[in-house]
Amino acid sequence: MSLSSTNQKKEEPEKNLPNTMPTLAVARDFLFRLIGKTYTEKQFEDLCFEFGVELDDVTSEKEMYTREQVGAAGGATKELSEEVIYKIDTPANRYDLLSAEGMSLALKVFLGTIPAPKYRVINQSSPAFKMIVDKSVKNVRDFVVCAVLKNITFTPESYNSFIDFQEKLHSGLARKRTLASVGTHDLDKLNGATEFRYSTTPKESISFIPLNQTKTMNCAEDGLAQYYKEDRHISKFIPLISSLSRYPTIHDSHGNLLSLPPIINSDFSKISQATRNIFIECTAPDHHKASVLVNQIVCAFSSYCADPFTVEAVEVQYEADGKSIVTPDMAIREMTVDVPTVNRRVGIELPSSKECAGLLNKMFLYADALDDKTVRVGIPPCRSDILHQCDLVEDVAIAHGYDNIVMTETPTRSNGYQTPVNKLSQLLRLEIVGAGYVEALTFSLCSRDEAFKSLGRTDNNVAVHVANPQTFEFQICRPSLMPGLLKTFQASKSNPLPLRLFEVSDIVMLDNDVNFPPAIIVDDGVVYNKTGARNERHFAALNCTAESSGFEDIHGLVEYAMMKIGIAQISASTPIVAGSEEEDAYYVREGRDPAYFPGRAMDIVLRRNGKDTVIGSLGVVHPTALKAFDLPFPCSFCEINIQPFV
User: Fold this and answer.
1) If you placed Cys at 306, which of 43, 117, 151, 581 could pair as Cys (CB 3.0 to 4.6 Å)?
2) Which helix (H) or strand (E) holds 586?
3) Where are the domains of the chain?
C-alpha cells in the first residue's frame, strides 16, 4: 500500500467508497459476513442506535454517482455496482470503528457473540526486524513506529477496506498527514531484508519509480511539485516537505528506496491482494500519534493473520541518543471506576460492580470487579479514545441503553428563562428581518482608528482599551456597531444593490459606577468588584440603494423599530413636564455626529419622566468615512441603544 491510497485503488473495483471522517461506508453483505449474521434494515438501524452510532444512509455506488452527476447518461452508470452500501456515522474519537473489520468486531463483542480479543506482540524480546533512525531526521519527522503482519490473507473486499482505512486515518487522526503518515510494504518483495533505515537524503540524489507509476521520478530534474502537478490527491501534500533540502526517506538493507514520507511509496514494494506479509512503518513528529495510528491498523486487520490478533515486533533504534524501542506497543492500560460515580452520572442504579463490569465488557474493554464498589478496567490498544474515567461512564451508559435510563427532573434551583434584553433583541431581529434586512454578526473588538478617526469621532475617554493587543485590528472593545457594519459592507460591496444590513449586539463603554454582583461576603458587609465598564445592547442598520443614499428608508426603519418596541413618536416642540410619569416617547432632532454628512444627520431622543436623553442617531454616512472604509457607494445608517426599553 502507498501513502497515496487513491491511486492504488484504481487496480481493484471499489466497494467501500472513500469517505471523510467520521463516516464508514461499507458494503452491507460484506459487513454482515464479518458479523456472522444478517439483519433487516430496521433491525440493523436499531442495533446501531443501541451501540451509539447511526445508520445514516442506505445507498449504492450507482445511486451515489447518479446523485452527484445530475442527468448522468445511462452508459456512465451501467458499470457501477448496485450492491447495497451502508453509511454509518461514528463518534469522531472512535477511529477503531472506521473500518468494516473494526466495526464488525466491536458489534460482535457488544452482542456477546465473542469476548473482546486480546492482542499479542510476538518476538517482543528479540525482534527479527530492525528500523534504524538516523539522527538527521530530528526536527523533520522525528519518530517512526513499525510493525509486521505475518501470513495475512486478503479478499477483494478486505484489501479495499485495508486501503480505505489508512486514508481515513490520514485524513482524521493524522490531520492530513501533518501529524503522522503510514506506509505499508510487501515484505516478500524485499529479498529477505530485515533491517531498514529511516534518514534524510539530499533531494538531488533521490530517484525512484513512485507507486503505480512507470516513469522514474528524479527529484533533481523533475521535482516533486512538477512530477505531481496533475495529481490532485498527491499535490496537496507536497508542501509538507517541499521547503526541505533533504527529504525523509526509508530504505531497506539492500539500498532500495521504499518510501518518501509523507508523500508516496515506491512502486517496488507495493502491496496487493496477493500480499501475505506486510511491513508497516509510520513516520511522525509525534510518537504518540504514530503509535495510535499503527495500533488501529494492527487491531483491525490482524484478524486476517494465520494466527489471529498477533503482530510481529520491530526494534526501532535511534542513533541520536542510542535508545531502542520495540514497536508496536500493544500494552493494555488499566483504569478503575467506582459504581456510585457511574450511577450518579448516568442516572441508573447498578446494584454491584459485577453488573458494571459486564456492561463495560460489552464495549470492547476488559473489566472485572475489584470489590463491591470498584471495577478494574483494562483498555485495549484499539480504544485510544478512553482518556478519563468519564469515558468509561459514557460506555456504561451506552451498554446499559439510553432508552433504559429513566428521565428525571433536572436538579436545578430555578426555572430557566430568557432574559428581558435577549427577548427584546430576538423579537426586534425578527421584525427587522421581515423589513428586508440581512443580519450580520461582527467582531466585538476593533481598532482605535476604525472606531474614531475613520468616523471623524473623538475618543472622549469612553472606549475600553485592550492592555496588550496582538493586532492593530483588535485594540479596543467596540463603542459602536458602526465600524463592524461598514467593514461588512466593504466585504460585500461586490454584491448587487440594494444592500441592507443590521445587527443587534452589545457595545462596551467605560463606566466607573458599574459594579458586579456581590463577590465576597465579609463580617461587616458585602464587598463589590468594580468592573469600570458596562455593556449596552444596541440595534444598528445600514442601507445602500442604487438610486440614492437611502436616508428616507433608514428614517422609516427607525420609526418602524420604535413602533414595534412600543415607543410613541412626539414632536420635539412638545413641552417637557417636570416629574411627568406619562408613557415613554421619542422624537428626532438635528444631529452633530461627525460620522454623518452635515445637514443629513439626526439624533434620536427618548423622553422619559420629563427628561430627554439621546439614545441613538441616524443619517447619511460622511464621504470621509466612506473613503476610510473603501466604500464606493453612499449609504445611510442608524444606531439605537435599546437597553432603556428592557
Assistant:
1) 151
2) strand 585-590
3) 1-12+120-329, 23-89, 333-401, 420-645
